[in-house]
Amino acid sequence: MSRSLTTRKKLCFALLVTVVSVGSMEIGSRLWLSLLAPSSATGDVGTENNRLVQTMRGDLENEQQGQQLYATDPQLFWKLQPQVQLRVRNNVYQMTGEPVYWNIETNQEGFRGASVPPAGTPAVPLVLCLGDSCTFGFRVDQEQTYPSQLQSYLRAQGLPGAVVLNCGVPGYSSFQGARLARQLLSRLRPDFVVIAFGANDLEQALRSDQQRGELTGQVPGMLSGLRSRLAVARLYDRLFRSQRVAPEVASQTMFRRVNQQEYQRNLLSMITAAQEVGAEVMVQDLIFVAPVYAEQIGRLVQQKQVAYLDGRRLLEQGLKEILSGTRFQEQRAVIDQFWDVELAKYNFVYYSERYYQQLLNIPQWQGYLRYLLVEPVHPSPLGHQLISEQVGQWILSKSGDSQ
User: Fold this and answer.
1) Coil, helix or strand for 101?
2) Does position 241 have pLDDT exceeding 80, yes or no?
3) Parallel, antiparallel, or unpaired for β 280-285 and 307-310?
4) Whether the predicted pLDDT of 225 surpasses 50
5) SS3 category, 198
6) What does pLDDT average to over the chain?
7) Do the beta carbons of residue 92 and residue 346 sit within 8 Å?
8) What integer is the mean pLDDT of 27-34?
9) How far apart are CA 78 and CA 109, in angstroms?
10) Pick from 399, 343, 401, 393: which is nearest to 370 by CA?
């Protein structure tokens, strides 16, 4: 009995010493951090992620009633908040009358559009759309996004149980897409997966996504979030781990968020993960201004034998149909009314005025920006319709093959 009591006392004493030691280290680390000069290049990655989120929020002019679309995430850098409802001004169009707005609603999973069906509810087929702001549907209403239009298209074509999940997140690179795919695919096990990344991979940053991921992804889940709040861990990063980042960072040299080799590796990871759960896969190239990753996409599409959608060729064909009068003439009349009567000024976003003028000197690009793109990066509602039809026809052909 006395031995047991003595052992308990020793354990309690050891625990007390540990708590006091850790507490002292945490207090000392906080004091040390307060004395260190702030560094935007080699500082806390969590702070860097916060800056990125704040920058993205600037593209949403009027987040209402304290609601915010973006939140930081230890694994994905940022994510969408669940259960958000926003009405956002479209700052591309300056109108003669009332401004143009677009609505955003996120579901309980923190994605735009349809929710994951409850357990036991059949979804035939279940389609998972992974991508960036083009998949999310930046500057178009909820029902105008290609995943939403795709769900309507499939149901109208004889698949009333079709559910299309829009897992697009603005600003995501293929690195974030690969991480998100690993989180979703084994749980949801969709029948079809559509993948579209690339534009954000080209962005310049103080760290590549791979470097940032190494700093934030050492400990998964809740522990990673806890780690980012511990002064001891932040001090360690400042004193030691920052040295693992290439020294050019300290001199403000910028990195491409994802280089071409990393892009191919990330895309391969997503395709493989989707095929491992038995899903049919389509890869989309939705970089409309140039075929930046066309070589990498083409190589993997052939190697993994998956479907491919070329967004640039799709716009070219769609514009020919509009201008020839063979399709979309009702939509064309509405769009012409908008541009010729209701629009006061077209504002240049993302790119310089000089770059826009170069595009607008090309008749084809005049048509794209009038009918099929809101700006050079994001599809218009009619552009989303073209994408949804192409994806829908592919799914119908595969569904017919399986019957």
Assistant:
1) strand
2) no
3) parallel
4) no
5) coil
6) 85
7) yes
8) 64
9) 14
10) 343
What span, in angstroms and rounded, lies between the C-alpha atoms of 154 and 143?
14
What does DSSP say about strands 307-310 and 343-346: parallel, antiparallel, or unpaired?
unpaired
| Residue (of 76, 100, 74) closest to 87 by Cα position | 100
- The three-state secondary structure class of 168 is strand
pLDDT greater at residue 242 or residue 72? 72
Please determine, for residue 223, whether its predicted confidence score (pLDDT) is greater than 50: no
Q: ∠ at Cα 194 (89, 80), nearest 5°?
A: 40
What stretch of H or E contains 72? strand 70-73
Res. 326: pLDDT tops 60? yes
Q: State how far the Cα of 279 lies from the Cα of 226, in Å rounded to an integer.
A: 35
Residue 248 dihedral angles phi and psi, to the nearest 5°: -60, -25
Residues 6+ apart with CB under 8 A from 385: 146, 149
Sorting pLDDT into bands at 50, 70 and 90, what band is 9? Answer: confident
Residue with tokens 């039809």: 389
- 116 three-class SS: coil
Q: 3-class SS at 235?
A: helix
Q: Which amino acid is present at 389?
A: E
By C-alpha distance, which of 55, 60, 361, 388 is closest to 194? 388
The Cα 104–Cα 87 span in angstroms is: 6
Question: Average pLDDT for residues 378-383, to the nearest whole number?
Answer: 98
Q: pLDDT-derived band of residue 55, with 50, 70 and 90 as boundaries?
A: low
Strand, helix or coil for residue 190:
coil
Q: Shortest CA distance to 47 belongs to which of 57, 60, 38?
A: 38
Which spans in 157-286 are helix H? Answer: 174-188, 209-216, 221-229, 231-239, 260-276
